[in-house]
Write a structure and sequence with these properties.
homodimer; five-stranded parallel sheet
């Protein structure tokens, strides 16, 4: 284990490795056993975050806008303007404009020393990056809040601790995959005269990685690919969505601090901020030296990348059409409350939000007796009201919609069937310019596929009348195969339905949640235990996080020779 | 562990799992430690293969041609004619002609039961397939001999035991990757009221796999992808090169025997024999239900598959340009003997055969004193003569060339520089129609890149005069980056050169062998210890075998629910 501390560096990598490796081992063990593990507290008022962490986070966020990001990377000298918050304010920050080719060249030049540092040092430094981001969790949460429009508590949780836990999971997988093979061996082939060879197995990176971030979950979706790539020896370029630059900007700033403090080049992690007028994603993703691309976003662009960035391994999470099948329940009230929350959280702008809720047109049996199709709609509508009224409470679940196209989609969808729950505008008590809308729920027949069977990202749900649960499961199998899905919820009245739904889940390659009626929602997956997306249907070609997500990020180069004598 | 023995089946899968799993654990341990392991004896006269195994193998090969392959799969009713042996005879066998869409549909239908069998049963049955192929090793060796033109001992070793060991390695990796995660967990999130969930993690296959086999190493290059895919729950279709159908045909016959004996569908492994007139590779590889493609062959078609079969994960091994750098040696005679063998084995028709041998134009220092560039050429030429004379001995190293294009290339290359060693035709004592050629070695200057820096597959080597070793290493770095390479050999006069060559190997992503002067040749890699190809340069996008080769062949689908009560 080499120690790179010198006058110019302040991180003793040897000591850091000693400190972080036991935790990494625990992380690997949790990922394999799928048991609970969280390194970064999700309690927004956890004293670990300081005395008045929310206020301190807001102050740090203001100060950050004032000072700007401290980045060391090639720039054209021009700047990219900051984002406008979905809550109203223009962020008073700007970002360095970059030339993609110059950024890739700098990234490439930085790699050999990082490669030679080896898996342990790289993993320890990646955890250090995450820990320092954890120390700035509230500031990061504010940045996510004011770029994505997520409500504050969610922005903090999903944007900081949960994202950092996913990042740690990626580092743990990447580290484990690299150290699984011996680094060297004396190989002896038996025989009258045994053949002996000394062999060394060197982990080498693939090349430069580019993360193309999404508007809604810049850190949660971005950190796994960035961290897995960095941990495996690659240099990384974060290309955020133009509406959500700052969260990944903070990640890059912290990564550069840690890397340079350990004696490595800042250019191992750089930021490629761009604008809708002059997007950089294509130029970066198809650059000959870019060998890894992580993408979260639209199906159109994800498919384009898979077909065109063929010089790279492309990991995509695209759109999908998530479904719920209601067959029956023994906990009707809790089911409707759970569903109402799933539809409402962050205005339905999650890649995991259900869109189509299949209900037999003859209704369902419940602990409260038989409910007709219409009654199911009424109960869902009233659960939405209970959840989101008064507005003060509703805005903390819905957040603010940053993308005007989402609002247009709500209006369009209202005409597609019988409105069961109207989408209403709520006034945000603190941010008058915020765009807050309650979910629209429209009842349609299964035959109206034009309505429910097209992805309509946002707070838009369809109550779809089916011939019964068998019919519903066939619709799920079909739509997942064509449109893809990340989630699939089932409220099952019998073990037979549970078994049939499991069969559909396995055939279609989508994970399934059964009978959620508490504080776990179909939208949510937790690091180390739940796999987010399967990679086995059109919604994503990768899962966060498994071996298939990390193993292609490095290669093994062997050197061999006969021992002397 | 379920036992599927019934009247219709003869394999007790429970007992088989009990028997095979300890060996699989040993195989996983060997792959991780990279120590020596071989399950299938490479000794051609090993009594384990019977009393007179070579004669028995030849008889079995004749009988096989007589009876034909016993295959259960959809066919058009027409047949595909058998191959002509590079040693002369026409094989008296034919293969069922297939409709690709029908074959894929049959493969797909067979998968759910195979998926539900789970990783242990699948791995045990895959090992059983390999073991039964091991029992037919000599027959398989004859099939490889008479389709590829490899000399008999090599065809036996590379085509049977070594290929089966690689197949076992693939099964071991695939099994390990699937069982690394818990199959289920009771997850408990701490809190005042802990949140508890039951979770199951189901391994699901990607879809149908297609192996597009190569002419020269149908089993050695084909078995890893076939076995890794089958072990992870996919159905496999072997699409052999039209010149080398029978070896993969035997693999499919044995796979079907084992699968059906255990109660599974024969359609999990099928054969898609085709002809140059009506090739099936494109239709198979781009079929919507084909999700995995393994390819060994030309760079042109490999690149095409990577760019066009985007519905699948495509694993390719393509052409490359392998190099040797001679800086100096303390064992000149042994070095020349080793090089001569590397250039000669199977008429240089290995993806690992060196093509360009870089020598300083000022010569090299050796244990026999300084040798000029010309003297290096003379010594290499005389080492080739020593190795290949008399013809009786030479043919057992060279084999017979099946592809007329190879012979044309030799003639073309002879005009590209100063001939150091002429390519001579040798007469095969047993097979008068065999096409046997000794290697051509041509001396050129490094500046004559048109000569040495184009892949010329076959017994064609270039002795390339350089300014010195630094120059040679820069040429290697450049050519590996552009053309790709699977092997890189170095004869180093100093530790400095060894270090510089290692740096080039890591930068270019090619494995390096230093100072080979015994019975290990740069061309050869051994299962469980050597990685064949790195996947990190243009010669291949995958390595045989590592986690990146197996992990993308399956996905994990999760089901979760709250426990009752």
């Amino acid at each position: 284990m080499s120690t790179t501390t010198s006058a110019a560096t302040s991180i003793d990598t040897g000591a850091l490795v000693d400190r972080q490796l036991p935790d990494l081992r625990d992380a690997v063990a949790a990922a394999r056993s799928r048991t609970y593990l969280s390194r970064y507290s999700e309690r927004i008022t956890d004293p670990a975050y300081g005395d008045d962490p929310i206020a301190a986070g807001a102050a740090a966020f203001e100060a950050l806008q004032e000072r700007g990001l401290d980045l060391d990377q090639p720039t054209t000298g021009e700047t990219v303007p900051g984002e406008r918050s979905p809550y109203g304010p223009q962020l008073s920050i700007s970002y360095p404009a970059v030339d993609p080719a110059a950024l890739v060249a700098a990234a490439r030049d930085a790699m050999p020393a990082w490669r030679d540092a080896g898996p342990d040092v790289r993993a320890a430094l990646c955890v250090e990056i995450l820990d320092r981001l954890g120390a700035r969790a509230h500031e990061l949460g504010q940045a996510v809040h004011h770029t994505t429009g997520q409500p504050l508590v969610m922005a903090f949780q999903a944007g900081a601790p949960h994202a950092l836990d996913r990042g740690l999971e990626a580092v743990a997988y990447a580290w484990d995959a690299q150290i699984r093979h011996a680094a060297s061996v004396t190989w002896e082939k038996p025989g009258k005269r045994p053949t002996i060879m000394e062999k060394r197995f060197h982990v080498v990176p693939r090349g430069v990685e580019v993360t193309i971030g999404c508007r809604t979950f810049p850190t949660w979706n971005g950190l796994p690919g960035l961290m897995a790539s960095l941990a495996t020896g690659n240099a990384v370029i974060a290309k955020p969505h133009p509406s959500s630059v700052l969260p990944l900007g903070i990640v890059v700033e912290v990564a550069q601090q840690v890397l340079t403090a350990a004696g490595f080049s800042a250019h191992l992690a750089t930021l490629a901020a761009d604008t809708p007028d002059r997007p950089l994603a294509i130029e970066l993703a198809t650059h000959a030296d870019v060998k890894l691309v992580d993408f979260t976003g639209s199906t159109t662009f994800g498919d384009w990348l898979e077909a065109n960035a063929t010089q790279a391994r492309v990991f995509t999470e695209k759109a999908g059409l998530n479904t719920i099948v209601i067959d029956g329940t023994e906990q009707a009230a809790a089911m409707f409350a759970n569903l109402a929350f799933s539809l409402s959280l962050y205005s339905g702008q999650m890649c995991t939000t259900p869109q189509a809720v299949f209900v037999p047109r003859g209704g369902i049996d419940t602990d409260e007796g038989h409910l007709s199709f219409e009654q199911v709609g009424e109960r869902l509508a009233s659960a939405l009201e209970d959840l989101l009224e008064p507005a003060k409470k509703g805005v903390e679940i819905l957040g603010s919609i940053g993308d005007p196209a989402v609002v247009e989609r709500i209006e369009e969808a209202a005409g597609l069937g019988t409105v069961v729950a109207e989408s209403r505008a709520l006034e945000h008590p603190a941010w008058p310019d915020a765009v807050v809308r309650t979910p629209l729920v429209v009842a349609v027949d299964a035959a109206d596929a034009d309505a429910w069977d097209t992805e309509r990202f946002g707070p838009i749900g369809f109550l779809v009348a089916t011939d019964g649960t068998d019919h519903a499961l066939e619709l799920v199998r079909d739509t997942v195969g064509r449109r893809g899905a990340i989630t699939f919820g089932v409220y099952a009245g019998s073990d037979e339905v549970r078994a049939a739904a499991t069969e559909v889940a396995l055939d279609a390659g989508v994970s399934a949640s059964f009978d959620l009626h508490g504080t776990v929602f179909v939208n949510q997956t937790t690091a180390f235990s739940d796999f987010h997306a399967t990679g086995a249907n059109p919604a994503a070609n990768a899962s966060l996080v498994d071996d298939a997500f990390v193993a292609p990020r490095f290669a093994i180069v062997e050197t061999r020779w006969h021992p002397e004598g």
